[in-house]
Amino acid sequence: MTYCLSCDARYYLSSTFTCEPLGNLFTKCELTLPTGGGCAICKENYYKQKADCISCDESCGTCVDSTSCLTCQNEYFRLSGSKSKLCVSYDNLTKCITTTPIGCLKCEDGHYLYDYICKSCSDNCISCDNYQNCNNCIANDYVLVDLQCVNYKNVEFCLSANNSKCTECEGFHKPSDAGDYCVKETNYGLVVGVPLSVTFVMIVFIVAIIMIIISMIQKRKQKKKEQNICNFKMSRSNIEMVKLSTNLVSNKTTLKFDLDDNDPLKVDIETRDLICIGNVSKSNLKVQFSVMEGCDYYEIRSVPPLVTLKPGYACEFEIFIKPLCTCVTKESVAITSLNIATGVIENAKIEMEIETEQTTKLNYREITEDEKLGEGSFGIVYKGSYRGVCVAIKKMKQLDNNESGLVEFEKEVAMLDKFRCDYIIHFYGAVFIPSKVCMVTEFAAFGSL
Questions:
Q1: 262 and 291 share a domain?
Q2: What residues are paired with 68 via a beta bridge?
Q3: In this structure, how many other beta carbons lie within 10 angstroms of the beta carbon of residue 117?
Q4: Which of 207, 228, 249 is the last residue of a domain?
Q5: Staple partner for 29: which of 39, 172, 299, 408, CB 3.0–4.6 Å?
Q6: 331 inside domain
Q7: 288 near 277, Cβ under 8 Å?
């Protein structure tokens, strides 16, 4: 008798060690019972129910029973959180970009992932965490306000929107930092600029009025001055003119200051002379008198100090001279003319003869030092000459520009001027120019200093 140790796939090994046919158990059983009456282990896609193997649901790869999948078939996934334990077809994963056996991992715009399923965001939202919390709105016209998409027209003062933010606001408003509403903007240009502009305009207006008033006052003063200025047309005058330069003529060539009398000029008192200056050019000329710089023994001025002469016209000038010391001299006074049309300046000269009365105020230019005679604590004595006379010259020490010292010096000179006697040395006077201060007396050839 023969005993089987193993059987073909369509047969099973019986307890008598013979191979018996499986029938339909072949399609379901991985391992049959020794009696052939059922399955000990089921194949995939089957679950064991007593001795039989029952086919799983079509969605299951493996299962526990007809309603519970352990794994899913291809193109199926487990629906997390669902009461049903069966797998669901990928066809149910709408709006999903990336599908897996556990569900969706990435959704299309406008949807969010919830338990591996794509659900719609709120209206006009393209990116959200859930239905209540939107992250980005559609490109234009909507603003993200409190995690919801709102049309920009419903946002107060908002005029346009882009990228979920209000981009332009009405009037004196601007978008907030988050861009979800419009805030009132302080326009510092207006707040500061307008008051400053108004203030500036007022200041300019006031300054303009002041300038106009000043100009009017000056014009009135100028008219008053011009009333005192003697301008005349030379062709209608019988005054004989002498040519001074190309453009200027004058009625005299020398100023002698002898209108009132022929007496010597007074020291420290103004004496006047008159002179007419005419314009023989074809342009307007500005004419004024000027003296050499550094003149310290007389002062001179003209009235008017400056005048504009038309072609063919002349002006009468008053020349005032104030000698500051006793002097006899001849000087030249410059007459400067400016051609207004061309800007060319021309200088002419006119002589001036000065002879003053004899006073104790001497001109240092007429004093000559010859030799040093002696020196004391208050000064140095020199032998010299004054207008051809031998004199003693006492130069003061430590006086310089000290004002109080000059006052004391003047008092001393005034006192010496009172002592006039044939039996004492003659006092000629003193020089009061600060840098040249000295006293001049008769030189006593046989007397003491």
A1: yes
A2: 65, 85
A3: 22
A4: 228
A5: 39
A6: yes
A7: no
Distances (CA, A) of 4 to 8, 21, 35, 257: 11, 14, 14, 173
- Which DSSP helix (H) or strand (E) runs through 409? helix 403-418
Exposure string for 258-277, b = 16+ CB within 10 A, e = fewer: eeeeeebbebeeebebebbb
Is this model's pTM higher than 0.70 or not? no
Task: List, for residues 310-360, the tens digit of each pLDDT value.
Answer: 999 999 999 999 999 999 888 889 999 999 999 999 999 999 998 999 898
Q: What are the backbone angles phi and psi of residue 2, rounded to the nearest 5°?
A: -105, 140
How would residue 217 be classed by pLDDT, with cut points 50, 70 and 90? very high
CA 424 to chain centre: 78
Q: What is the pLDDT of residue 368?
A: 93
pLDDT digits (tens, 9 = 90+) for 21-70: 777 777 788 887 777 667 888 888 889 888 788 889 988 988 988 889 98
| Helix (H) or strand (E) run with residue 46 in it | strand 46-49
Pair (209, 236) in one structural domain: no
Judge whether residue 213 has pLDDT over 90: yes
Does residue 82 sit within a domain?
no
* Total domains, the chain: 4
What is the enclosing helix (H) or strand (E) of 410? Answer: helix 403-418
Q: Is 95 annotated in some ligand binding site? A: no
Whether 288 and 336 map to the same domain: the answer is yes
Average pLDDT, the chain: 86
Which residue range(s) make up the domain with 222? Answer: 191-228
Residue 86 is assigned to a structural domain of this protein: no
Please check whether residue 152 is in contact with residue 161, taking contact to mean a CB–CB distance below 8 angstroms: yes
The answer to whether residue 195 sits within a structural domain is yes
**Same structural domain for residues 420 and 327?**
no
- pLDDT > 70 fraction of the chain, expressed in percent and rounded: 94
Task: Please give the structure tokens belonging to residue 231.
Answer: 């301008």
User: Looking at 355, 373, 407, which one is the last position of a domain?
Assistant: 355
Q: Looking up tokens 């001109």, which residue turns up?
A: 363
CA distance 42 to 11: 16
**What CATH number does the domain containing 334 carry?**
2.60.40.10
